[in-house]
Each structure stands twice: as structure tokens, then as C-alpha cells.
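Homework help thread (please don't just give me the answer)

Our assignment gives two proteins as sequence + C-alpha cell strings and asks us to describe the second one. The first is just a warm-up. Here they are:
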Amino acid sequence: IKAVVFDKTGTLTKGEFKVQTVVGGMPVMQICASCEQQSSHPIAASIVSAAKEKGLELLTPEKLLELPGKGIHATLQGNDVLCGSARLLQERGIVFVDPRESGTKVHVAVNGMYQGYLVIGDTVKPGAEPAVRQLREKGIETIMLTGDGEDAAKAVAETVGVDGYYAKLLPHEKLEHLQKIRSQKGAVMFV
């Protein structure tokens, strides 16, 4: 094996997400939680849990389309709602400044107007850094792939000490990167 490629969430990190910051107030959290309540994704579950802890009423979207790796497009109380990655909002022409802040950001737009964002954090698994260090000591290259944004990816990559990382990847892009690494390095293990 010439390289080990790690997925981030649930592999190098615990996959136990918590809402750390809300920018735009409780309406942003309520909108986001209302749209995410049908999703089984761990980030969605953390948003719904935080909203319930705050006693926020969750509304039922009239329409809901889950966009894998990007977020959700919904109709909520007659309003067109986007909840998800910066990429999703940019693709839909929403104008906003993506803040430089570590953690995974879930942005919210209503009727084409940016409303704010949530920052969701994950914690590194205790054994991740020693495992990566031992692989590197054996001359095996370590690479992390993640759908998270650049800031969150960089923070985890620096903490665990991987040789490189690729961020903002959709599921099919992770596979493409794995295949490219395999063609460049030879035998690759995926964790």
C-alpha cells in the first residue's frame, strides 16, 4: 500500500455534530431545522436537535428536495428556501460572503435573499492522530477527502497530520479523487 485515503466524518472525526454558532438568529435555525427534519444526515440531526432544545416549532415543508452533498431546496410556508453549502447558494445565484470560520456551515436563503448560517462542529477521534502518524512513519502517504468546506477540512487535516486533503467534494467527486490517487500512487487503501 502506497497511500491511505480517509473519509473525514465518522472516520477521523466522531461524527457527533453540535450547532456551535447561529448567525441570523432563531429564525435561521427554525427554517433550517424545519427543512432538515426529514433527513437522516448527522448534520441535519444536530440542527433539529438544537432547534428542539431551544423550543422552536418545526414547520412542515410543502415541498422538499434533498440535493446530495449540497443541501435542501424546499417550499416552506409558501417561501422558496435553500439550506445547505455555499456551493448550493452560489449555484442558485444567491449573493453573500462566505465567512472564514472553522466548522461546517449551513447557509440559509429565503426567496433568493440570504438570511444567515449555522456553524456545526465535529470532534477528532482520539486515535486518529496516532494512527496517521504511524502510517506516515512507515512511508505511507495519508490523504483526507471530505464534503466539508475548506476551513473545517484544513482544521481537521492539521490536527490529525495528514499529508494532504481535498475539501468540498460531492460523493462522486470523492470516488474520482480516489481513482486519481490510485493511478498516481499505485495500491491505495480507503478508510
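The one we have to describe:
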Amino acid sequence: MSIFGIVNQENLLSFLKPMFAPNRRSFLKYFMITPAAVSILPRYLPARTNQLAGKEVIVIGAGCAGLGAAQALVKAGADVTVVEAKTHIGGRISTDWSMGVPFEVGAGWIHGPEIRNPTRQLFDAVGAKYVITDDDNILVFDRNGDEISKDTLEEINQKWESSLAIVDRTLEKDDLRSLRKAIDDLTVDSIGNPGFDWAISAYTEFSKGAPIGDLSATLHDEDKNFDTQDVIVTTGYSGMLTPLAKGLDIKLATKVFGVTYVDNNISVTTKSGHFSADYVICSVPLGVLKSGSIKFDPVLPDTYQRTIDQIGFGSVTKIAFKFDNAFWDTDVQYFGIMTEPMGRWNYWLNYRTFSNENIILGISVGAYAPIADRMSDNELARDALEVLRGVWGDKVQLPAQMLRTSWSVDPMAFGAYSYPTPGLSAGQFDYLSRPIRNRLILAGEHTIFDYAGTTHGAYMSGLRAAQMLIEQNG
């Protein structure tokens, strides 16, 4: 079986089929662009104006949302300071090159990399290179370590698809069931079947960053997406940050402890002192807002705080092993393994399909991801290697190098990305983006339901927050 090789920007254009998913909310009109657009900021930001001349804005968080907001505000004439708790920009975007190829600590794929995807445009601006990940180029192994047939895999996939379709057709929008409960109630031979458990975990739990028992049955697949197959950025995901950060005043290693937004007295308290401003855009991860580590004065309105508490924030754990020799079929892009418990290292990406390195990357999702996050490096390695040996036996030797993630225990994130919980409404995500007292605006992937959990969603939310301030002063 073959896969697409690494392609440059020009070659990528030849096989991407533009199709923009229609927006539900009018404020996204600011982000609609023409199919021919290949530049970055000029297409997404308004022309340079002086609408915010003389205004000072503090942006909390130097991820996609914060950097996008800051660039838009600077173009509008504002004096902008970005404060970031980490020692590097990017937030949940970070590329580790210690294995000789990119290991993405955070975001790892461009989801729907068609020309109108803003993340795609950010990468095109820096001449990034991509490789398509072919979801059909996969071998799946049962709980005994035996490879299942293509026909059996097709039956599993059809069962997964039909079960979700039954849920979608049957439930009313106000149904309070979790996805797991709805599948249990409405289908036969689904939950508990090893093949189905693997598919619902490897596909749905991975996509949403949450256990199906915590996912809303009605909202889990109601978000929007761009078209075309997902790609990996072989030049590193962090490359998109270069144009976003250019020219900005960014204070790194500057953790925020408090935000005061009383009338015209707006201040941000950090470990390095106080910053005063006319406005604050807070783009920290939802997990940080949930933790209460930033004290707001006055406290956030009840409707905002309840929504912050209700929106889910999950984790996905990655582990990458580099071996002296490959023991797996190097032409296969993905390996699925039906593991127990559900979500335990059930999906593996083969780096040999786009590099010369003998690296295989495993994923833990759902309820197992937080368990994996809390393991020590040695415990995590033993756990993941045990899964590999269940398929390849003694061929699996000790790796030469290992890298891992642990987002749910990162005190500057407390998770990977947001998801809708049972009883939540889609509008609650976007409600969080409404200005508070016309001084404080929350931004981030958790404030934009249609594109929650994505880098392009985070970026778009930052531009939207900036646009709100520009219009407010127009």
C-alpha cells in the first residue's frame, strides 16, 4: 500500500478540493476569504487603522488565540502587551526536534487543510511542508494480538458509523444523555464489543479528547469542519507561530494571578508586577479558567462561571518511541490495537511513512488519557511497550529514545482541548466570547463551538475578540 509523499505548498494546491463548511454565526463573516487567498494576515485582519490609537490592551496567553488577537489589535493602532506564563510562545503548540524529526507535544495535525483554513494559511506563509495521513492505510489487531481482516475492519467501521447515525436520528436536541448511554439505549452489540469499543475510542474519543461517557450525545458531532484529509506538518507545527508573533511585545515566564476590571481601572497582576490597560483579552486554556488560578475582580458573572464549569476539558496522551530497527511494517501508516481498558494505546502512527526515522507514536484517549498522564516516564514506557509486545512480541526491544506528553497535569493548561458535556448547549461556548463590562473578553478554542478543539478555532476566536474591541471603538 502506498501513501502520499511529502509535498510543498504548490503541490498541495493541486489536490486540495476547496469546500468551506457554512458558518452558523454572523460574526464569522470576518473570516470568509476567497479560494485563491494564500497569504496570511492581510486576508484575515482588517486594513491598518487608527480605531484603537491610544488604547492599551493586555492579552493574556501567547497561543494561537492570543497572538492572533494581538496582531489584529496592533493593526488597529492599539498598544498591546502579551503576557505568557510559559517560557515559550505557542500555548498548546510545541514541537520537539530531539528525535531528529518533529514530535508534536500539542497540536499535531491540520484538520481539513484546504486553502481557506486559517491554520493552513499560517503554514503556507512560512513555506511549510506537509504529508497527508491516509486513514485507510491501517492494520488493526484484536485483543489476542492477531491482525483482523479488511472485511472485519469494514464491518467494525460500519457498526460505528451506523450506531452514531441512529443516535443522531433518534435524539432530540435537548436530550441529556451521554453518547455512551445513548448508544447503550438505542443499539445492540455496540458498547462492550471489542471491535466497536476500539473504533468508538480510536475515532470518536480521539477526535473529541474525551470519554464517550462524558460526551454529549447530541452535540459531539455538531461542530463544523474544513474539507480534505488531515495532514502532518513535516517542518514542525511551531513554524506557524513565526508570523503570528512578529513584532509583538511578549512577556514570557509571566504568570497571571489576577485581573481587575472595575470601570476604567483595568489591571493584570503577574509574578513580574502589575500591568494597566484599557482592555484585557484573556486567552488562557479552559483548564486554567476551571482551576481558579486567575482571580477575577469582580468575579466572573454567574452565567460565565457556570459555563466554564460545564464545558468539558479532556486530554490526549502521546508517547513516541525511537528504535534502532523497525519491527513493524514500515509501509503502513496507522496501527490499531484493541486494548483494555478502553482508550489505552489503541492507535499508533508510523513515522516511517513520512521520514527515515524508526519512530512509532502511540495515543491514549478517553478515560485512560488522564491515567497515562499521571504515570512516571518509566511507568508510561512499560505500559505502552506492553501493548506493542502484545502484537509484535519479543521483536519489541527497548527504545533508544522516548518522548511523552501529559497535558492534564500541566499547571498552565490542565488539559488538551474542550468538548461538549451532556446537557450543554452549543451556544454556551460562544456565550463565553461576549465582552464582560465592555472591558474583558475571553478567547480560545473553548469559546467557538463550531471549531472547538482546533488551532484554527483558537486563532479565529482571537481575531473575533479583537474585532469586537475594534467595533466597540469604531
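TA reply:
I won't write it for you, but here's a hint about the kind of observation we're looking for: The longest strand covers residues 256-262.
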